[in-house]
Amino acid sequence: NQSTExxxxxxxxxxxxxxxxxxxxxxxxxxxxxxxxxxxxxxRGTTNNxxxxxxxxxxxxxxxxxxxxxxTMPFTxxxxxxxxWPLGSDTEMIxxxxxxxxxxxxxxxxxxxxxxxVNCCHTIICHSGQQLKPRHLKYITPAIVVIAIVxxxxxxxxxxxxxxxxxxxxxxxTTSHDIGNTTFExxxxxx
Length: 191
Known about the structure:
Layout: H1 8-39, H2 49-80, H3 92-125, H4 134-158, E1 160-166, E2 181-187
Helix pairs in contact: 1-2, 2-3, 3-4
Protein backbone atom coordinates (compact mmCIF):
# COMPACT_ATOMS: atom_id res chain seq x y z
CA ASN A 1 0.00 0.00 0.00
CA GLN A 2 3.00 2.32 -0.39
CA SER A 3 2.64 5.18 -2.83
CA THR A 4 6.41 5.54 -3.16
CA GLU A 5 9.19 3.05 -3.76
CA UNK A 6 12.01 2.25 -1.38
CA UNK A 7 14.29 3.96 -0.34
CA UNK A 8 12.19 7.11 -0.89
CA UNK A 9 9.37 5.81 1.28
CA UNK A 10 11.72 5.48 4.26
CA UNK A 11 13.28 8.88 3.55
CA UNK A 12 9.85 10.54 3.41
CA UNK A 13 8.80 8.89 6.67
CA UNK A 14 12.02 10.08 8.31
CA UNK A 15 11.43 13.63 7.06
CA UNK A 16 7.80 13.64 8.25
CA UNK A 17 8.83 12.36 11.68
CA UNK A 18 11.65 14.93 11.94
CA UNK A 19 9.45 17.85 10.89
CA UNK A 20 6.61 16.76 13.16
CA UNK A 21 8.85 16.48 16.22
CA UNK A 22 10.66 19.75 15.46
CA UNK A 23 7.44 21.65 14.79
CA UNK A 24 5.67 20.32 17.86
CA UNK A 25 8.67 20.93 20.14
CA UNK A 26 9.44 24.45 18.91
CA UNK A 27 5.83 25.64 19.05
CA UNK A 28 5.26 24.08 22.49
CA UNK A 29 8.44 25.76 23.78
CA UNK A 30 7.36 29.07 22.28
CA UNK A 31 3.94 28.86 23.96
CA UNK A 32 5.56 27.94 27.27
CA UNK A 33 8.07 30.81 27.06
CA UNK A 34 5.31 33.31 26.19
CA UNK A 35 3.31 32.08 29.16
CA UNK A 36 6.29 32.39 31.52
CA UNK A 37 7.14 35.82 30.10
CA UNK A 38 3.58 37.02 30.72
CA UNK A 39 3.98 36.12 34.39
CA UNK A 40 7.08 38.35 34.69
CA UNK A 41 5.70 41.28 32.66
CA UNK A 42 6.48 44.90 33.52
CA UNK A 43 4.02 46.87 35.68
CA ARG A 44 0.75 47.92 34.11
CA GLY A 45 1.42 51.67 33.60
CA THR A 46 4.56 51.13 31.54
CA THR A 47 4.62 52.36 27.94
CA ASN A 48 3.99 49.91 25.09
CA ASN A 49 2.46 47.39 27.49
CA UNK A 50 -0.63 46.93 25.28
CA UNK A 51 1.48 46.74 22.12
CA UNK A 52 3.73 44.06 23.62
CA UNK A 53 0.77 42.16 25.04
CA UNK A 54 -1.04 42.26 21.68
CA UNK A 55 2.08 41.08 19.89
CA UNK A 56 2.60 38.24 22.36
CA UNK A 57 -1.04 37.14 22.09
CA UNK A 58 -0.86 37.11 18.27
CA UNK A 59 2.39 35.13 18.34
CA UNK A 60 0.83 32.70 20.83
CA UNK A 61 -2.18 32.22 18.54
CA UNK A 62 0.16 31.61 15.60
CA UNK A 63 2.11 29.04 17.63
CA UNK A 64 -1.14 27.34 18.71
CA UNK A 65 -2.33 27.01 15.09
CA UNK A 66 1.09 25.71 14.07
CA UNK A 67 0.93 23.24 16.96
CA UNK A 68 -2.41 22.02 15.62
CA UNK A 69 -0.84 21.64 12.19
CA UNK A 70 2.05 19.63 13.63
CA UNK A 71 -0.41 17.31 15.38
CA THR A 72 -2.10 16.60 12.04
CA MET A 73 1.18 15.93 10.18
CA PRO A 74 1.32 12.17 10.97
CA PHE A 75 -2.16 11.72 9.53
CA THR A 76 -1.21 13.73 6.46
CA UNK A 77 1.86 11.51 6.06
CA UNK A 78 -0.29 8.39 6.42
CA UNK A 79 -2.57 9.67 3.66
CA UNK A 80 0.23 10.90 1.40
CA UNK A 81 2.47 7.85 1.69
CA UNK A 82 -0.30 5.28 1.19
CA UNK A 83 -1.68 4.33 -2.19
CA UNK A 84 -5.08 3.62 -0.67
CA TRP A 85 -6.82 4.80 2.49
CA PRO A 86 -5.34 2.54 5.19
CA LEU A 87 -7.92 2.99 7.96
CA GLY A 88 -10.82 1.04 6.46
CA SER A 89 -14.24 1.64 4.98
CA ASP A 90 -16.10 2.91 8.05
CA THR A 91 -13.75 5.84 8.65
CA GLU A 92 -15.05 8.38 6.17
CA MET A 93 -15.46 11.03 8.90
CA ILE A 94 -11.82 10.52 9.93
CA UNK A 95 -10.86 10.79 6.26
CA UNK A 96 -12.70 14.09 5.96
CA UNK A 97 -11.11 15.45 9.14
CA UNK A 98 -7.62 14.34 8.06
CA UNK A 99 -8.12 16.24 4.82
CA UNK A 100 -9.71 19.41 6.24
CA UNK A 101 -8.15 20.12 9.66
CA UNK A 102 -4.68 20.89 8.23
CA UNK A 103 -6.22 23.42 5.88
CA UNK A 104 -8.07 25.07 8.78
CA UNK A 105 -4.74 25.38 10.61
CA UNK A 106 -2.96 26.76 7.53
CA UNK A 107 -5.70 29.30 6.76
CA UNK A 108 -5.80 30.39 10.42
CA UNK A 109 -2.02 30.73 10.61
CA UNK A 110 -1.99 32.73 7.39
CA UNK A 111 -4.66 35.13 8.62
CA UNK A 112 -2.87 35.55 11.97
CA UNK A 113 0.33 36.40 10.06
CA UNK A 114 -1.60 38.99 8.06
CA UNK A 115 -3.03 40.40 11.31
CA UNK A 116 0.49 40.62 12.78
CA UNK A 117 1.77 42.36 9.63
CA VAL A 118 -1.11 44.85 9.57
CA ASN A 119 -0.68 45.58 13.28
CA CYS A 120 3.10 46.09 12.87
CA CYS A 121 2.58 48.30 9.83
CA HIS A 122 -0.02 50.32 11.69
CA THR A 123 2.31 50.63 14.70
CA ILE A 124 5.23 51.86 12.56
CA ILE A 125 3.41 54.11 10.10
CA CYS A 126 0.59 55.47 12.29
CA HIS A 127 2.38 55.58 15.62
CA SER A 128 -0.15 57.99 17.12
CA GLY A 129 -3.13 56.10 15.67
CA GLN A 130 -5.32 53.43 17.23
CA GLN A 131 -3.41 50.18 17.75
CA LEU A 132 -4.86 46.72 18.20
CA LYS A 133 -5.48 46.09 21.85
CA PRO A 134 -5.71 42.70 23.56
CA ARG A 135 -9.45 43.15 24.00
CA HIS A 136 -9.84 43.42 20.19
CA LEU A 137 -8.25 40.01 19.73
CA LYS A 138 -11.08 38.23 21.52
CA TYR A 139 -13.22 39.18 18.50
CA ILE A 140 -10.59 38.92 15.76
CA THR A 141 -9.30 35.42 16.58
CA PRO A 142 -12.70 33.66 16.63
CA ALA A 143 -13.58 35.45 13.38
CA ILE A 144 -10.34 34.13 11.85
CA VAL A 145 -11.18 30.58 12.98
CA VAL A 146 -14.71 30.80 11.58
CA ILE A 147 -13.43 32.12 8.24
CA ALA A 148 -10.82 29.33 8.11
CA ILE A 149 -13.47 26.68 8.80
CA VAL A 150 -15.73 28.12 6.10
CA UNK A 151 -12.83 28.19 3.63
CA UNK A 152 -11.99 24.54 4.46
CA UNK A 153 -15.56 23.28 4.33
CA UNK A 154 -15.42 22.31 0.61
CA UNK A 155 -12.48 20.01 1.39
CA UNK A 156 -14.47 18.44 4.23
CA UNK A 157 -17.59 18.12 2.10
CA UNK A 158 -15.99 16.68 -1.04
CA UNK A 159 -13.52 14.23 0.56
CA UNK A 160 -14.98 10.77 -0.08
CA UNK A 161 -13.92 7.16 0.15
CA UNK A 162 -14.35 5.20 -3.05
CA UNK A 163 -14.26 1.43 -3.02
CA UNK A 164 -11.88 -0.20 -5.48
CA UNK A 165 -11.66 -3.93 -6.02
CA UNK A 166 -8.21 -5.15 -6.98
CA UNK A 167 -8.46 -8.40 -8.90
CA UNK A 168 -6.40 -11.27 -7.55
CA UNK A 169 -3.83 -12.32 -10.16
CA UNK A 170 -4.37 -15.84 -11.44
CA UNK A 171 -2.02 -18.55 -10.26
CA UNK A 172 -2.41 -22.22 -9.41
CA UNK A 173 -3.88 -21.52 -5.97
CA THR A 174 -6.49 -19.06 -7.28
CA THR A 175 -10.01 -20.37 -7.65
CA SER A 176 -12.92 -18.89 -9.49
CA HIS A 177 -14.41 -17.78 -6.14
CA ASP A 178 -11.64 -15.27 -5.39
CA ILE A 179 -12.95 -11.81 -6.16
CA GLY A 180 -10.05 -9.69 -4.96
CA ASN A 181 -9.08 -7.42 -2.13
CA THR A 182 -11.17 -4.35 -1.38
CA THR A 183 -9.22 -1.15 -0.89
CA PHE A 184 -10.35 2.39 -0.35
CA GLU A 185 -9.11 5.40 -2.22
CA UNK A 186 -9.48 8.93 -0.95
CA UNK A 187 -10.25 11.58 -3.49
CA UNK A 188 -11.22 15.18 -3.19
CA UNK A 189 -12.91 16.12 -6.47
CA UNK A 190 -13.13 19.78 -7.32
CA UNK A 191 -16.27 20.66 -9.25
